[in-house]
TrEMBL record:
Gene Ontology terms describing biological process: intracellular calcium ion homeostasis
Membrane-spanning parts: 73-93, 100-118, 130-151, 163-182, 202-227, 239-260, 305-329, 341-365, 371-397, 409-426, 432-452
Keyword presence, Ligase: no
Domain Sodium/calcium exchanger membrane region: 98-262, 308-450
Taxonomic lineage: Eukaryota, Fungi, Dikarya, Ascomycota, Pezizomycotina
Subcellular location: Endomembrane system; Vacuole membrane
Compositionally biased spans, kind Acidic residues: 284-300
Function: Has a role in promoting intracellular calcium ion sequestration via the exchange of calcium ions for hydrogen ions across the vacuolar membrane. Involved also in manganese ion homeostasis via its uptake into the vacuole.
Name of the featured protein: Vacuolar calcium ion transporter
Positions of region (Disordered): 279-300
UniProt membrane topology term: Multi-pass membrane protein
Length: 466
């Protein structure tokens, strides 16, 4: 029996207008609903309260928060975004060079991931051709921004090293990790090992283009050696003319490559079509078709305007962080006794390609090797045929003599890497041993540049410019 007070009121006595006080169960449900709404407000990337409000101000604030939330939750690496304001503060307040370099180094990693996310969101609505062009332009935007800032600052050796390092990072580190981890997961059983497969036609085409890019670096180095032996006073001018002419030709070839990939021979770059042409009916072929269907049905999380706004804001943040990062390089080289070549060849590419690295390895583990190869080799082609010659032209415009004459050790490392990769991928098959070989070569090159005293390569390059 419900206890009553002196005035006859009990725990279920109506409080206002005949409404009964909520029971324990009703309070519990209300608490759970409140918790769910809170989680939805902060963690639900599909819906945000207030988006359907009739009030324009409320709807605008809700949409702004929705865009921010979707962007922040787009990648696990975004927890490093806390380094962005700290890195900017370090640069503005002139903290120690080591602190400025480290904080802005860490800040650019999540910014690169957000940049990649925003680019993919826009690409979903633009169709295959325009989406491909957009990805080609913004896929390596971080390296391009850092390189333009360094070029403006006169750090030509850093620019060249970062371009070469990005190519080596994609060809050896990313592809090596794809082959290694994908090969381990799909190695088969003992005595009956299996290999992962991808389009050999695509591999041969892209490796041919990388060999051409390698030749575009070897020829200026060879010409410089010949002119240096003859003690020609016009050697720097000759190298500059050769580099600018070569840059124009490489840019034209890149345009043809885009037409080849996106228009005339797009079937070669289609995983499902590749499986059908080879008559594969195995799980991998079926998986490729299912993945294609799911990609067609996938809807973007952000609208084009919101994604474009994110793209602009993040690009500005990357440019500012890159300014502080590049500005601290000279002091870092002097204090840490490491060469600019090591910073450009190893450290900067890791920052710019972090998001692409993770993506490529994940899809390789899922046995989507055509997509993994597209990320690894496709990015290398963009850098070799578009970004590097583009920077030569930019240097020409702003009065900085950027050439394709790289330091001899860097040129040899690049040529050897392209040769090894060509032999590795030409059969259209991969396994974990081949992955370990590519990773081993990358580590050898990294150790070689780390072990070289800071002044040797830098002085060698400086002397070649004089």
């Amino acid at each position: 029996m419900t206890p009553k007070t002196a005035n006859g009121a009990g725990e279920r006595t109506p409080l206002i207008n005949g409404e009964a006080a909520p029971s324990y169960d009703e309070n519990h449900v209300h608490h759970e609903t409140s918790s769910t709404s809170t989680l939805s407000f902060f963690l639900d990337t599909k819906h945000t309260p207030g988006l359907q409000s009739n009030n324009f101000a409320v709807r605008g604030l809700a949409y702004s928060w929705h865009v921010t939330k979707v962007t922040l939750l787009s990648s696990y690496v975004n927890f490093l975004l806390i380094a962005v304001p700290i890195g900017l503060l370090a640069g503005i307040l002139n903290w120690s060079p080591t602190a400025v370099f480290t904080l802005n180094f860490l800040a650019i990693i999540p910014l690169a991931a957000v940049l990649s996310f925003a680019t993919e969101e826009i690409s979903m609505k633009l169709g295959e051709t325009m989406g491909g062009l957009l990805n080609a332009t913004f896929g390596n935007a971080v390296e391009l921004i850092v390189s333009i800032v360094a070029l403006k600052d006169g750090q030509i050796e850093v620019v060249q090293s970062s371009m070469l390092g990005s190519i080596l990072s994609n060809l050896l580190l990313v592809m090596g990790m794809c082959f290694f981890f994908g090969g381990l997961v799909h190695r088969g059983t003992n005595g009956h090992g299996t290999e992962q497969t991808f389009s050999s036609a695509v591999a041969q085409t892209t490796c041919s283009l990388m060999t051409l890019a390698s030749a575009s670096l070897v020829l200026p180095a060879a010409l410089y050696a010949v002119l240096d032996q003859s003690d020609s006073g016009e050697k720097n001018k000759s190298i500059l003319v050769l580099s600018r002419g070569t840059a124009v030709i490489l840019l034209l070839l890149y345009v043809l490559y885009l037409a080849f990939q996106l228009r005339t021979h797009s079937n070669l770059f289609d995983a499902a079509a590749h499986a059908a042409e080879e008559g594969r009916t195995d799980a991998q072929g079926e998986e490729a078709e299912e993945d294609q269907d799911s990609e067609d049905e996938e809807e973007p999380s952000l609208g084009p305007a919101a994604a474009a706004a994110v793209l602009v804001v993040v690009t500005l943040l990357v440019a500012i962080c890159a300014e502080f990062l590049v500005g601290s390089i000279d002091d870092i080289v002097e204090s840490a006794k490491i060469s600019k070549a090591f910073i450009g060849l190893i450290l900067i590419p890791i920052v710019g390609n972090a998001a692409e690295h993770v993506t490529a390895v994940v899809v390789a583990i899922r046995n989507k090797m055509d997509l993994a190869m597209g990320v690894a080799i496709g990015s290398s082609i963009q850098i070799a045929l578009f970004m590097t010659p583009f920077l030569v032209i930019v240097g020409w415009i702003i009065g900085k003599d950027m050439t394709l004459h790289f330091e001899t050790f860097e040129t040899v490392a690049f040529a050897v890497s392209v040769l090894v990769v060509t032999y590795t991928v030409q059969d259209g098959k991969s396994n974990y041993l081949e992955g370990a070989m590519l990773l081993g070569l990358y580590i050898i090159i990294a150790v070689a540049f780390y072990s070289v005293p800071s002044g040797v390569i830098d002085e060698s390059f400086t002397n070649s410019l004089n």
